[in-house]
Amino acid sequence: MNISTTTSSERADFRASLRNFFEDISPESRVREVIASGSGLDETVWRGLATDLGVSGLLIPEEFGGQGMSMAEMAIALEEASRAIAVVPLLATSVLAPLAIQLAGDTAANAELLPVLADGSEIMTVAFLDGAGVGTVARDENGWSIYGSKTAVLNANVANRLLVIATTPTGTGLFLVDAKASGVVVTPQNSLDLTRPTSLVTFEGAAATRIGAEYSEASQVLNAFGRIAVSAEMLGMSEKLMEVSVEYAKTRVQFGKPIGAFQAIKHRCSEMFAHVESMRAAVEAASLVDPSDKAVLHEQALVVKAYSARFAPWIAEATIQVHGGIGFTWEHCAHLYLRRVKTDEILFGDALACRFQLQQLLGLSA
Amino acid sequence: MNISTTTSSERADFRASLRNFFEDISPESRVREVIASGSGLDETVWRGLATDLGVSGLLIPEEFGGQGMSMAEMAIALEEASRAIAVVPLLATSVLAPLAIQLAGDTAANAELLPVLADGSEIMTVAFLDGAGVGTVARDENGWSIYGSKTAVLNANVANRLLVIATTPTGTGLFLVDAKASGVVVTPQNSLDLTRPTSLVTFEGAAATRIGAEYSEASQVLNAFGRIAVSAEMLGMSEKLMEVSVEYAKTRVQFGKPIGAFQAIKHRCSEMFAHVESMRAAVEAASLVDPSDKAVLHEQALVVKAYSARFAPWIAEATIQVHGGIGFTWEHCAHLYLRRVKTDEILFGDALACRFQLQQLLGLSA
Amino acid sequence: MEALLAELREFLTKEFPAWSAKWPDGELWEAKLDWQRTMAEGRWSTATWPQEFGGRGLGTMEMLAIEDVVAQFGVPQIPGMIGVKNVAPTLMRFGTEEQRKSVARIANTDEFWCQGFSEPGAGSDLASLRTRAVIDGDEFVINGQKVWTSNGMYSTHMQLLARTDPDAPKHKGISAIVVPINTPGLEVRPIKQINGGAEFAEVFFTDVRVPVANLIGPLNEGWNVTMTTLGHERAGVAVFAGRLEQRIRNLIEDVTKQDSPVSPVISDQLAEHYVESRVLGMMGAQMLAKIADGVAPGSESSVIKMVWSELSQQVDTTIMQLSGVEGITGDDNDAKSGYLSARSATIAAGTSDIVKNIIGDRVLGLPRD
Amino acid sequence: MEALLAELREFLTKEFPAWSAKWPDGELWEAKLDWQRTMAEGRWSTATWPQEFGGRGLGTMEMLAIEDVVAQFGVPQIPGMIGVKNVAPTLMRFGTEEQRKSVARIANTDEFWCQGFSEPGAGSDLASLRTRAVIDGDEFVINGQKVWTSNGMYSTHMQLLARTDPDAPKHKGISAIVVPINTPGLEVRPIKQINGGAEFAEVFFTDVRVPVANLIGPLNEGWNVTMTTLGHERAGVAVFAGRLEQRIRNLIEDVTKQDSPVSPVISDQLAEHYVESRVLGMMGAQMLAKIADGVAPGSESSVIKMVWSELSQQVDTTIMQLSGVEGITGDDNDAKSGYLSARSATIAAGTSDIVKNIIGDRVLGLPRD
To answer: Fewest 10 Å CB contacts: which of A59, A92, B35, D49?
Structure first.
């Protein structure tokens, strides 16, 4: 991958323009409209990200119409989009899909697929989690066919094409499947996260194109990027929830004073702040790791995910607690964040699973 | 065992007389004197417990000069003695030793040993924990001889005779060894607990008398009683520490008000109270279990120990936190309790070890 | 006691299948009302009421035993619980002769009552409520807003707490008033919760007029009138404690039946829940034993409430963790909705912070802030 | 920077073995003082002092790099740290010409300073201190008591904070005053801690008289005089963060070398400590990078202090747990004394409660109580 990294002051500018963008066109009221519509996609935001801000192409080299940037910039986009709980397939289409393709090292696939991702003209998603008790296998039957099922496929309901990680006769491969192909069934799930619908995708001999060769190592690197990406999302949401909690604590009066004057509330807010600052340090450090140093990337990704997946849900839960009854209502934003945070917690392994992998790296586990 | 249980109002009277006794003759100043003397035994308190209050004989049948009572009464004595951090071998000599002997079901041993325990004329202790990396074995060499070492032997420095649980050629046995016998070396340890010195006891072919027959099942029952006993101790200490903390929180003024008015302190005290009440319920329930129902006894003992070993240390630590700097001084009582609580936490298995055994009972562990 | 429970078992063995046959969809509102009428006819829902009001005059322990048997049969909860458990006892004790006529109608679902307590500005600090009731001739004129009114959408009447003397100290100057829900000026709107349910409502009062005769108990004594009967609920936490213990036993049994073993860390976490729930259950049992001995429960109910709410929330979080991907995709919808619903455990009926304040202030005698 | 560190390495390679040869028992007080003199002669302990005071005029980053190298060599900490790090900078900035003469003597251990701040009634709430200094002619007459005075037993001088205007608001009316320890009326008693150590002292003042010329900075401005130089210590927490991360790495390495594997639950707990310490280390590194860029650190130091103190306490508790029976019998005395000592981590230099208040009040702008 041919990437460059901006300076921290350039990144601050980038963050400011994203924040303005989302505040303008994706306020919470708009998010709720899109959720109610059931479409699972805010077209306006998506077009804006692709065309005005170039976010869809951040991780795509300039030769393929992208910006040729690093995870350091994409982390900011993920933070800001999640802060706004925007209903766009940013993680699936602009992070996982272009990285999955590039990690396959297939020149033809890069040339075909990266440009349509960079300009946002096509929505793709990566199907990486096997359905319960069902693996996904690829068979070479005069061309590849996929059998099995994938669960929790992000934004599959709006995707044109699916990148499927499947078991091959000799290992693991990455495959491109048309979402409308015969033998592909996309069934929307009753997802916890209302801003990012997931689907069960079943394959019954769906025709597929293989991208690149053996993919098992690439799949590990993709997981590492995935962990950093969802951690950035959790950071953006946690920061927002902390701000919402602090604001409420300043204004809500009970027993004759703002509740933020009570230590139980004040200290909860201070702990939120400490966790947000910690997550920020960890996401920044992980997103600046040189991706060619795979061992370091793997370790840092596990650390940041283990931390975020443990404390971001705590912050979302504490936000409801600080708000009391009002935080438990559908109308309050807290649950929208809680739902998305809990989803990020699980994707690419929860905190316990990441710590288990770290134990292995540290020689603690047999 | 021939035991009877008192009513709860009789037990309340018993508690009151014990509380008075310890407040009178074992105030903290006295405890510190005995600690400083290095003797590890407050003779006055010990005599009083044996002769005035009959505590040494609580768990010993009347036919052997004891009171023929149950763990329900002994739990109260352990709570009150530990509340006063009295420097007496109550756990070792009046709980573990008589139970160890009676569990062996050896009529002659009962007749010989229980009366001198009941009247407090002899101090015995039970050596049950193998020294690091060294087992304790008994060999039949024209009479039994013991080899190996035991660690953390409570009050061994003042004991006349030791009850040793050792591996026999066919299983496990209980053995009586004279503390002054040739081949027995008692080495005082640098114990954390200043009120209940432990020793390393090494045996190099020390002559021993076997009590009863195969002891492996009895040893399990003894462990269960041990767990209930140290939980009762932790309850007594936790209650005292809570009271000390609450008292301090009412009087210590910072930032213009008593610190107990600050929620951080108030809620810490409320949590202490909740844990103390929980421990009280658990100790009471466990100490009222019919000992002949071994499965129930085993389970309840694990539950009460798992709970107490987790939260009593927290209470002792929180006491220091509530007190700030003064709680970190040698002169404040907190560390004397912390040291004894942490010791009780470890004896008969810490919370994690007890939970592991519970997992096995629940079918959770392979 | 045994004869009583035998009678109950016989009753349920006969009536529950009959009701199930009559109502294939037991979740229907009408079906639930019908079940409540059946339970009232048998004088089981109202067993603690005095006989002259159609009850059996039983004590708390008997009622708890009855509830246990009822739970074993798996019959639905009666929908008018608040009326039966909270409102009716208040009316029996403080109500006028006219008001007491509601008691029988509450039992047989002719009337369905809610309680108008919490307000947007008065949640944890309930006594700071500001809904006003001003006497104008022989009527109260009520203005203000209530929130978190359980069953507000289905009720015919409200037991309202309103401020009748704004100059009195916070806990004084509050009165309890009967307000028919169909009174002009009163509007009820459902509150949708984060789990999608809507068991609560907001209620708005704009110049709502009811007769002064609707006052329950003395004027300006509504706080005491209401808190006295809230005490009836106290023993309930002991039952909650036992149920949570059973729930954790069931969860662990389910886990042991799974094909793939869980992580040793989760296993230990389940054992931790088990230990805490066992101890909670012991506290609950001892509290019930005290009640059975005629001793009024003291601080136990606050401690049990505090431990129960935190533990039950943790258990739902653990279940969600056990469900993994199935929890976020809705393939295990019970885990998902249990997790979301459990967020209220440490908020409803006094947040954990408030319970800790109460223990600190009232039990430990710590200085108030 | 590299040349500087090379010079330091050369210095330590020569001087440390020489010192070790001279003092077979490096724990002796005289040995430690001798090492401090050696470090001062090399201008390494005083590297951040301006050159005119015998320093090297270096910045924070260089000092941290120096401390890293010093730590690598495993040389003892200098005993007069408080004088060198806290008192001397204050005297250089606010002291009279006479007072500044102490600076060189602090470096070479001719003078040994402590700071008299905390009082029995003024711990977390330091500004409520009540030790009085009343001007009587050209002397202060001092009465009161200090507590938790680090190195109080070994000091020749104290930088005292005393109240000189009892009518002023809490943070005003406090002055900083030089008090020689041998002044009549002053008594120092050691405070024994729960781990058996006695690095702190109580100091009693009974009509202690010192010249008004001993005032440091303006009268009644002692709070600002002192807090300004306390700021010098701030960057230190970043170093603590890095050291805790390393400590946890070492602990895990030791555990992996054990013969018997630890429980999977403890393994997970160690991994949890590892994750938190790695993140803490990242925060520390980013804070240092900011300082290196000339940006003043803001709220980071409070957050790092809070996380550090809780995590380091947890780690010592885990070590005690790993030691099991050996911890309570003293067979693993490091675990035991580490556990006891760690109780002060959440108390010393601001309790965790106070740090959370500071973050809430100053960083988040929450209303003060």
So the answer is: B35
Is A15 inside any structural domain? yes
The predicted structure's pLDDT at residue A3: 55
- The rounded distance, in Å, linking the Cα atoms of D104 and D43 is 11
Inform me whether the pLDDT recorded for C233 exceeds 70.
no
User: What number is the average pLDDT over the span B25-54?
Assistant: 95
In-domain check, residue D254? yes
Residues of C identified as active-site: 233
Strands A253-254 and B136-140, how do they pair?
A: unpaired
Domain residue limits at A143: 124-214
Mean pLDDT of C274-279: 97
User: Touching check for B141 and chain D: CB below 8 Å?
Assistant: no
What is the mean pLDDT of the segment spanning B14-36?
97
- pLDDT band (50, 70, 90) for residue A1: very low
D139 is catalytic: no
Domain holding A103: CATH number? Answer: 1.10.540.10
Same domain, yes or no: B148 and B166: yes
Based on the domain organization, do A202 and A231 belong to the same domain?
no
> What ipTM score was computed for the predicted complex, to two decimals?
0.93
In a shared domain, residues A97 and A60: yes
The domain boundary, picked from B160, B192, B214, lies at: B214
Q: Answer yes or no: do B12 and B101 share one domain.
A: yes
Cβ-Cβ contacts under 8 Å between A and C: the total is: 106
**One domain for residues D75 and D124:** no
Residue D161 shares a structural domain with residue D262: no
How many separate domains does chain B show? 3
Clarify whether residues C241 and C311 are in a common domain. Answer: yes
Mean residue pLDDT across chain D:
90
Q: Which residue of B284, B306, B364 is in closest CB contact with C267?
A: B364
Do A246 and A340 belong together in one domain? yes
pLDDT at D229 over 70: no
Identify the domain boundary among A197, A214, A231.
A214
Q: Determine the pLDDT at residue B1.
A: 43
D267 with A364: Cβ contact below 8 A: yes
Residues C4-21 have pLDDT tens digits of 999 999 999 999 999 999
Which residues in chain D are closer than 8 Å to B255, comparing Cβ atoms?
Answer: 124-125, 128, 369
Domain that holds residue C137: 113-217
A1 domain residue, yes or no: no
Q: Is residue C245 part of a domain?
A: yes
Asked if the structure places residue D346 within a domain, the reply is yes
The answer on pLDDT for D189 being more than 50 is: yes
Domain membership flag for residue D97: no
Mean pLDDT over C55-74 rounds to: 83
Count up the domains in chain C and report the number: 3
Answer whether B362 touches C (CB < 8 Å): yes
pLDDT one-digit tens code per residue, B95-144: 999 999 999 999 999 999 999 999 999 999 999 999 877 889 999 989 99
pLDDT for residue D243 is more than 80: yes
Interior/surface letters C48-70, b for 16+ CB within 10 angstroms, e for the rest: bbeeebbbbebebbbbbbbbebb
Cβ distance of C326 and A324 shorter than 8 Å: no
pLDDT band of residue B224 (cuts 50, 70, 90) is: very high
Does the structure show a pLDDT above 70 at A4?
no
Do A60 and A140 sit in the same domain of this protein?
no
